[in-house]
Design brief:
Beta-lactamase; Alpha-Beta Plaits; alpha+beta; four-stranded antiparallel sheet; 14 helices; 365 residues
Length: 365
């Protein structure tokens, strides 16, 4: 391990070292060289903390392993129980009695970090989330994650669900090593399900040169977490950071660490690539407007409205994603009929056209 006093000073505003008897250190970090598994940087790497949604990396690892062994396929249908449907956000709002394909479940876990989907996966593999958590812990021990215990598949708060930055780095290393093709899914920035597009929570991946995944996490007790991987000049580094006070602070701190370790390896930033990435991100942001064509008490009425607008006014909705979105107004639950992925100009033009035919329409950003 490289002892880098300068870097410790730079990151002093982030890391607060605790000398109390408490076993938890909220703030921790580690960076490893993927090829050699050498630890390049670490602070509090072996102190235990709540993994939050980094838990889903193990859930996905098991899914990939089950597919590899032939116990699942990407087209397998996973049934949704009342327990899974009741899980708190982030979620896809799956309904009890419905089903979801493994392919969609994988994308939902990686990009949306959907807690209801995590429970669906757990119950379909092990019968219950409790039994699946035992399987997760068993996998962890086999991967050398000596200080990790799982109690659920999502990372939702549980005082007994604990891990370390070092253990998460081992999990990421094994995921990339054992499932290189499946790992490519972690570089996806969005996915569509039931007419709605979901964007990645991993904002650092959008701007960091060479980044290709993998997972963010947050619960109040853990702070903002990030497991991260980037490749420059054929050299991959894996970085883990726990306990950010905000998502942006977490990202900035890990960026500093990763940049420093790449520099130590004489691997420099390519500024031209960074500019290309920034331009791509700006282009994506241009098409983040939606139009709302109706608000209803019942979901089926909202769905009927979407079909009506599609059939009667195809010019206004051509090549756009339709979606029914649950909202709350004055404590009441309502459903909005939306069309998404408009530029600002397109959205206002579409609404203007629909209003000519006395159709309700307004723009959402």
């Amino acid at each position: 391990m490289k002892k880098n006093l300068l870097l410790i000073i730079i990151l002093n505003s982030f890391f607060i070292l605790s000398f109390s008897s408490n076993i938890f250190a909220k703030k921790a970090a580690i960076v490893i060289d993927f090829d050699t598994e050498e630890v390049l940087f670490e602070v509090n790497a072996d102190t235990r903390n709540y993994p939050a949604s980094l838990t889903k990396i193990m859930t996905l690892y098991i899914v990939f392993d089950y597919i590899k062994k032939g116990n699942l396929s990407y087209d397998s249908q996973l049934s949704v129980s009342s327990v899974a449907a009741s899980r708190s956000p982030s979620k896809l709002y799956l309904e009890e009695g419905s089903s979801i394909k493994v392919r969609d479940a994988v994308n939902a876990l990686i990009i949306k970090s959907a807690n209801d989907v995590a429970t669906v996966v757990a119950e379909n593999i092990s019968g219950s989330e409790k039994e699946f958590a035992k399987l997760m812990t068993s996998y962890a021990k086999n991967l050398g994650m000596k200080n990790t215990t799982f109690k659920n598949a999502s990372g939702l708060p549980n005082r007994a669900q604990l891990t370390t930055a070092r253990d998460i780095s081992k999990l990421c290393h094994k995921l990339i090593t054992n499932f290189p093709n499946e790992y490519k899914l972690f570089s996806n920035t969005k996915f569509a399900y039931n007419g709605k597009t979901y964007n990645t929570h991993n904002k650092l991946m959008l701007s960091y040169e060479g980044a290709d995944g993998i997972k963010t996490g947050y619960i109040k007790a853990s702070g903002f977490q990030l497991a991260f991987s980037a490749v420059r000049d054929n050299k991959r580094l894996i970085g883990i950071i726990f306990g950010g006070d905000t998502g942006s602070q977490r990202n900035k701190s890990l960026k500093i660490i990763m940049d420093k370790e790449f520099a130590e390896l004489n691997i420099k930033t390519n500024d031209n690539k960074k500019e290309i990435v920034k331009k791509e991100v700006k282009e994506v942001k241009k098409n983040n407007y939606s139009i709302v064509v109706g608000t209803f008490k019942y979901r089926n009425n909202a769905e009927k409205q979407i079909k009506l607008i599609k059939s009667k006014y195809p010019i206004s909705t051509k090549d756009k994603i339709s979606n029914v979105v649950l909202i709350r107004v004055s404590g009441k639950q309502l459903y909005e009929s939306r069309f998404e992925n408009f530029s600002k100009k397109e959205a206002y033009t579409a609404c203007k056209r629909l209003k000519k035919y006395n159709r309700d329409c307004f723009v959402r950003l």
